[in-house]
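Cross-check.
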Amino acid sequence: MKKNGLCFLLLLFIQMGFTQSNLSWQGYFSYNEIKDVSESNTAVFAASENALFSKNIATSQIKTTNTIDGLSGETISALFHSTTFNKTIVGYENGLIIVINETDGTILKVVDIINKQLPSNIKKINHFMEFEGIAYVSCDFGIVQFNLLTMQFGDTYFIGTNGAEIMVNQTALVNGFIYAATNSGIKRATISNKNLVDFSQWGTIAGGNWSGIATLGTDLFAVNTSGYIHKYNANTNSFTGYLALPSPALDMRATAGYLIVTTLNNVYIYNSQMVLVRQINTNQITESTPSFNCATIVGDTIFIGTKEKGLIATSLSSITTFENTTPIGPSRNNIFALQATSNSLWTVYGDYTVDYNPYDLDSYGISKFSTTGWLNIPYEKVLGAKSMTRITVNPSKENEVYASSFFSGLLKIENDEPKILYNQTNSGLESLTFAGPNYIDIRINGAAFDKSGNFWVTNSRIKNGLKVLKTNGQWQSYAMENILDSAIDTNFGTIAIDKNGTKWLSTSSDGVIGFNESNNKFKKITTGPDTGNLPIADVRVVAVDTRNQLWIGTTKGLRILSNVGSFQSEEQLTANPIIILEDNLAQELLYEQFITDIVVDGANNKWIGTADSGVFLVSPNGLETKYHFTTSNSPLPSNVINDIDINSTTGEVFIATAKGLVSFKGVSTEANEDLNNAYVYPNPVRPEYLGTVKIAGLLDRANIKITDIEGNLVYETTSEGGTIEWDTTAFGKYKVASGVYMIFISAQDGVETKVKKVMIIR
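Predicted model, tokenized:
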């Protein structure tokens, strides 16, 4: 027989924070896709894709928990709240278990199932059942005991034929027996049997594929995958057909004296006599018509978890009133692109595959975050725009926003209201033609405003791929068939516009294209030592830094064009890698990395997103990697980075991943025009504070000197951007003593000065 592989002390740790615990992170998660729900006598608990929330019934207070607090970014598959131990247990598709102690807020990660020598695709956790302090964990390979007091694993039960792995979807307990609903029948064993690791102790009392099993009073009910509810007959030791549902059950549970069965379109609630006391249909929720996934009851309130509309509450006795109790957030976690301004953050959810095919023509609308919270503009209001892949705010008119659709054209939004969908009928935009004249597919992606207020966009897979909407409302097109190898096969990524007005376009097969309308010239940077020196012609992003260098992110690494001004003087432009020393060996920075985004902060540092390796923050010249954030050392929910942008006023860096949006409170803000708004924080610096002192509101290249009260110099630096940090040491040697320190700030030319003070308390 197979013996238990988890009968040793749990390899767990208390999640006390990540290695960058002194850094400021914020989470902006969607709670709309509910995976599971649980309950106590006073609260409901709900799990979305990779975040949790709970609502106190008496106070209506909502508490959220996400990766910022220590959860994993992996996908949640099961949730259970133990009232006895006041602990919430989260199960994941990859086998991870996280236990949250609701009393003190500590979070423990349990990795034993992940580490178990089993195929990774059968470690999913499906259900938790508590009995006498033990959680019986139903997994895709069997059942695991988990002690809720000691936080240690007990036995593992492999109950398939001859002890094989078997998918256990749910367990239930009645009359001293534990029952397991599996994909190979319903299994039963005596719960008090000390030898349940022996598969022969488990009998099969029903064949077939069963999705759920639950105890209602003294009765036992099970539902098979076709939606047929069966009742256990103790006299015959068998299950007999009881009730056929019109569609398969997605969830079945017994709580508060009711049996609750959830299908995609209905929630059925039966009392202890199996009388149907309430049936809720999705059509009754007229505002949204959601798809159901699970449901539970707390007191007189039914809570329904939906696949896209969050958690909906209704009274057990009412038939008309429904309330959405979901924490407000973006429409979904997989944000494809975003743009931050000083006052708001815009996000879109459209997508395309790695070879630029729109992914399922996603229809998710647009979201905006501001001081008033989240505003979600649903698909029904975006004039039919699908697969929106970029969002661009007019820098001189923040109430004017454009969303690039990689299928439908260009959507103009004014004062948060979609107004115009530019397409082939009302603008200079064009549909691709190789699929025939009746097929309309207008692929707009990269977009940017120039310093004159003209709006430039790329139109993929046509001959005139570069378009501009001028300030007078007129459109103009530029033919690109002579510079591209095959214009109708070329897809465009992002656009960057430099101080000379040159437009730099990233392409799928022609590297980087530069264009300046002043001389109507196109130039190409592509592969080959004599034609641009890129590692591959598939370029995903271009960015111009404050030193007029062009940073080029490809699907196989990074290149730098040392001066964008060379567009005017050199016929062939050449980019080069950044060579760094690592372990005393010369290596190429981000060698072979698939780069998804590059953003320049106020100090000319580069934030670089990758397709599977998280986020890198590198110095202005790229020779120093200041941070490398991943899921293992930061609250990033995924190492798949879709987009990055920075609020230049606050320095907050927004990072959109495949599994959620987080931000890092950076210190690199844009430079100010004067020193009138210079300030120091925190002030005073108290003994418990472990971070750095920030001096913000600076001019670029300002000189900062810090002295003690007697005039002894302890620190000096020159700002790059609008903020600098001081680690409260005397030139990095030792922590300065308690006292008042003077901060002398002067402009580069010495004309403007400012003096500030900071108190340090050790």
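The two ends are 62 Å apart (CA to CA). Residues 1-23 have pLDDT under 50 and may be disordered. Passed to J.P. for a second look.
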